[in-house]
Amino acid sequence: MNHARHSERAFFVAVALAFVASAAATISGYQAMSSMPAMQMPGGWTMSMTWMRMPGQSWPGAAAAFLGMWVVMMVAMMLPAITPALARYRRAMQPLDGARLEQFTIIVAAGYFTMWALAGLAAFSVGVALAQLAMKLPFVSRAAPFAFAMTFVIAGALQFSGWKSRQLHCCRATPIHAPVNARAAWRHGLRLGIHCIRCCAGLTAILLVIGVMDLRVMTIVTAAITAERVSPSGERIARVIGAVAIVAGLIQLMRI
């Protein structure tokens, strides 16, 4: 029993340290990005340099740089929400010895963040394609503020859906399948990642359209995701978040 308590304390300390390190790296990345001038676009908005290549940089290099930034940012944003699921996994695996329990926990986390890395690669590909269209076609750029506002409205409406409720339930109760080995741990992490990406799709879309490296937006989205995931009243909180997003989107529409 004492060993189990010690292992749990060590787990939460490791999570806290990982969160602090990833948050510090995210802040550093934000400071570097904020020093770069944004591009003024037709329609009265600015395009972040996130979707652009730096001078002398190849597109694979730009994708790798974005992916590195994205994964670090996702660790900082998602650790508060995923920690309860990792703790449940550890409790289910308690018969394991300490070394294997730590190993399997790391494998689960690696599987989880691998799915977020793939989501980031998809987001970068879509973001770059849309950015290129906006630069080449002025009517696309002028339509962007409307699209941004509608993203808020649609994401907010999604928070009220039965689909959202089911995704929240899946995130909280992802089953742990036997056998107990590294392959099963990896698959469990992948399942957690898939459920989490689905559950956070609307809020992630808001993050992407406002500014993927905006610290204020990241903080708000992180708080929203964590609240709806870990609170016993998660579905109610999700609806409140949805209402706020819809109102924000409607306000933006009225300003266009």
Quick structural summary:
With 256 residues, the protein is an all-alpha fold.
End-to-end Cα distance? 61 Å
Low-pLDDT residue spans: none
Largest sheet: 2 strands, antiparallel
Helix count equals: 9
- Globular, elongated, flat, extended or rod-shaped: what is the shape? globular
Task: Domain count, please report it.
Answer: 1
How are the strands of the largest sheet arranged? 1-2
Secondary-structure class: mainly alpha
Bin the helical content: over 70%
Mean pLDDT: 89
Q: SSE order in H/E notation?
A: HEEHHHHHHHH
Query: Percent of residues in beta strands?
Result: under 5%
Total strand segments: 2
In angstroms, what is the radius of gyration? 20 Å
Describe the structure.
- This protein is an all-alpha fold.
- It has one domain (2-35, 59-255).
- The chain is built from nine helices and two strands, in the order H-E-E-H-H-H-H-H-H-H-H.
- The protein has helices at 2-34, 59-92, 98-136, 138-158, 162-172, 182-199, 201-210, 215-230, 234-255, and strands spanning 39-41, 45-47.
- It has a two-stranded antiparallel ribbon.
- A hairpin with a 3-residue loop joins strand 1 and strand 2 (45-47).
- Helix 2 (59-92) packs parallel to helix 8 and helix 7 packs antiparallel against helix 8 (215-230).
- The protein is globular, with a radius of gyration of 20 Å.
- The mean pLDDT is 89.
